[in-house]
């Protein structure tokens, strides 16, 4: 079945499987195709999968990936999987300070943006790829919908204290509960946005590894 699926569909399937099955299926693929599939996976899912491999296999696949696709994954692999940095999504909606609210709303309408990540936009100095330039703040979509489209998104920023990449999962969970969030920024010691943690990522790491199988069994 894996051979019959195209790279994008296989990447979607792998993201929903237990890690041991992900490793097994990835191991059946030609190395070049395995790298292609990892490129189209979300960076956090790709990092989780690569973390299960040996150092030799992990480094070989990273070398086969396109440099622009491999770099976010390398960044995520620096952090333990039970920290904010280890479960972060490195491709949230990031805007420059001179972006308008109309531009922000257009971005969150994009089909590939998940509902959780569409709840906020993050404003940073260039560069806009993570880790970004200096993180300035976030804007909630509810606030954006109440403002004139021509206004600058930097004028409606929330000064919510971001998470640090080293924050343990228990701290991340308390943070979400305290502020009633579905996504949150993760900012490193240099003030750069590393990415965003979404509530579904938190739940995935709180639930048992086999929770999907348990649900299917009823």
TrEMBL record:
SMART domains in UniProt: CBS, MgtE_N
Record PROSITE patterns: CBS
InterPro entries according to UniProt: CBS_dom, CBS_dom_sf, Mg_transptr_MgtE_intracell_dom, MgtE_N_sf, MgtE_transporter
SUPFAM superfamilies: CBS-domain pair, MgtE N-terminal domain-like
Alphabetized Pfam families for the sequence: CBS, MgtE_N
Keywords: CBS domain
Keyword DNA-binding: no
Highest taxon above the source species: Bacteria
Residue stretches making up the CBS domain: 156-213
Protein name per UniProt: CBS domain-containing protein
Phylogenetic lineage: Bacteria, Bacillati, Actinomycetota, Actinomycetes, Geodermatophilales
